[in-house]
Predict the structure.
Amino acid sequence: MGNLCKRSSMLFAAVLLLAGFVWLPPGACAGTGEPPRKKLVALTFDDGPSVYTIGILDVLEQYNAHATFCVMGERVEKHADTLRRAVSIGCEVIGHGWNHIPLPKLTSRDIREQLYRTQQAIADATGTMPPMMYRPPYLARNDRVIRISQEEGYMIVGWSFQSDGNRWAKRGASITRQIIANNVYDRSIILCHDIASSTRDAMTTVIPDLIDMGYELVTLSELLEAEGMSIVPGDIWAGAERPQRLE
């Protein structure tokens, strides 16, 4: 019986070979032999930089992870060293307005100034011109903001979900960790705030948690590239859509 089973297995393998079938490991792309696509997630931090940003960079560097810092222009010069370090370890810095005023409340001239001043402050601090994307304060925008963004060459970046909820300043590190674990999905963009100590504390567990879940932590630009996309001025991008859950 044992020899019969062995001969049957060998015959089956020979048939597959003659038919042109090639066995692929689980998760590989059939017909190409390519490995499964990486699970990616983009951590983004708004409203900084602050004294807590350094602690977040420590954890990112420890795990060779990347993130994007959406900074307020008026804070950049004071924390220039922090932002230079962020860029040096593979993170990126983009604008979040100059002083967190909702852009629709401003004149067209002032909107342009908010974009330009913040972009230039980042470039001066880091020695690198940031990518042409930004996150408006509160993600507030109207047709005029979108038109000006398009004219000035900027893509608007949103988020897939907030890690700390609407009352982020009053939430602790454990809540932030739980929200991220319960809501993260491949190609999602997570909104955090690096002006709170709770965010810094949360990242000491959130970042290794995400890595243990199989995610690679990337910048917005890296996520955009992985999706085969490029910056489109005036477009609003918030990462991949949340996959539907099977009940």
